[in-house]
Amino acid sequence: MSSRRDALRTLAGATGVAAAASAQQNSHQHADSGTNQPGDKPLIDSRKPKLPGFFNKDEFETLSELVELIIPRTDTPGARDAGVQFVIDERVPNDAEREKTWRDGLALFRGLDSAQRLKRLTQYSKETGTPGRRFFDVLKAATVDGYYGTREGLAIELGWHGNTFLKEFTGCTHPEHQIKGKP
Amino acid sequence: MTPMQIQSTQQHDVIIIGSGAAGGMVAWNLTRRGINVLMLDAGTRFNRAKFWSHVKPWEVRDRLAAGQRPPEFYLSTKEQPYDTDPKNPFELIRVWGRGGKTNVWGRVALRYSDVDFEGPAKDGWEIPWPIRYKDIAPYYDRVDQLIGVCGGDDDQDSLPGSKYHLPPPAPRCGERLLQKAAHDVGISIVAGRRAVLTRNYNGHNACHYCGACGKGCDVSAFFNSSDYLLEPALKTGRLKIVDNAVAARVLVDGKGLASGVQYFDRYTKDEHKVYGKRVVVAASCIDSTRILLNSKSDKYPNGIGNSSDVIGRYLSEQIRFHIQAFAPELIGGKVYNDDGIGGEHIYMPRFNHRDGRKRDYLRGFGSQFWFTGAHPGPTWARQIPGFGAEFKAEVKKRYPALLSLHPYGEVLPRANNRVRVDGTPPDQYGVPVARIEYNVGENERKMVEDMYATCEAILHQAKAEVLPYKRGSIDVLGSAIHEHGTCRMGDDPKRSALNKWNQSHEVKNLFVPDGAAFTTASEKNPTLTILALAWRSSDYMAEEMRAGRI
């Protein structure tokens, strides 16, 4: 189902006019958001320019670059395009241990330029049992979970097109996948 | 405001605690037979129009940020705690609200067979079942016809009774390949049996294959107690449901019979007492057990109907684990919409009793395969090595190729696997919470080895690329959400709490039709059997009432 909101959002992402698009979107709830009820607050656009709620400016800048290193933009959007840094910023707080893991982890990349960050990330990814490797695993898991939960990661990159209304479900029709003879 | 104490003078024909599969079925069957029922439900009816069935994964954050919330099916342990050893935790999933867990259940609707019912009688571990397949088969037939179960006609000795199935959904590519590989190593993977409507049925809507069943079905295309049982029961005018009624204890009269129920209002915390001539405890295995154990009196110092000290013991959940792999034929292939009826379209029935190979453990296992294919939430991508553009490409090409195996095995009943209420902290109503003490043993460890070997054989035959796993590891205990056995049925009143009609041996007007009544857990999903037993039990109850015996 093609959605007006999706179209606006893509436009917003491409041109950076998210705030305007967002305002327009909020003034006109589209019929495809079928579970909205009278009295529900309008949706906000997660893509509109906003500030991180948990990480400071330096941390957030580092995080944005690291998620893009994990899943970069290719012919499809990368993790930064998909706003995964915001997803992580929302999910980290309210757990002292988790907050420390991320603060300490991002500090490992403080003051490095892009090339040095890539080098360090590569190094951590090859280690075993070190604090660097542990943070790499945490970062990668969070980036993967975040990215493949966004429209960019799940629909555009992976090609998922489910959760829709189908009259029938065809299933596998490949003769080469069938059991020969009686199952 | 101080909570009040409220007593009703009315005497009801039957009081039912709980509105899930068991309570719903008893209410439906009794009301259509002209009997008046008062039902206590710990929550309220879930508003289907507010379900998030069609909220795309990436819309969830926006909605939450805007202050919207999906329906809160799952009871939080903050609101209602239970006690479990943090070093050996038991995960207990509860739904308070009309229909209970059937709002979000997995919909796997398997019949027990005589392989299951005769198991303990044959191997001698603990007590035998008091019934056999022939006793329950007519009720399975009726349940299948009432609620609508889709499935194949490919019956097995361990999976009988397909005659009323609705058409099965076609398997996905990955499921076909699993069937094929299993077939080549001598194992049958059959069509799944699921309580999902593949066509309009009995006034309920057909599935539209959106795959979001776990968020609750917005058109009620799978069996749930609320729409399939309670709504028709309400239409008879003979069912009254009290919302937000958190049952605490079954009351006892001077003759030692059940006389009513004490409950607390979930929010005001007012204490209520309601009275009735028969009481049905159907609050789901652990909570039914907790209610029975907390129902102490001079006559029953160990909990109502528990002179045998059986209630609370023999907790039997199931062991399970998860293995994921990729089918080489599908790597790099087209991404299909694999939603189907949500969850797997196939099932591997138990086979270890008939393949001629001797096992060094008792009982058996089967397997489910949900998540096979292209689905949202591909957390397996974490396990693909590396990062960067190459990693991204490796994930993408595997996306259509996922094979996902989830074998479930039986856990033997043991007296020390138990639910207790002695010395546990009180909940917010002052009622002791359940403490769950539960371990698996050597038998299960051996079975798990065989379960791994089976998965490995199938995946090896499929030439699949298997994601790393730790052989022998199992999922958190309790996570299968198939609790059984803590108020078990049997012929011997010294070793069982209920007779073969789910009726208390000791308290004739007390019935327990939920999972607590199962003599063994088997490897199967219990809901279809709970429905059949509850129908059978309530037929018996109605006859006993008519005859004036209860």
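Residues 1-42 of chain A have pLDDT under 50 and may be disordered.
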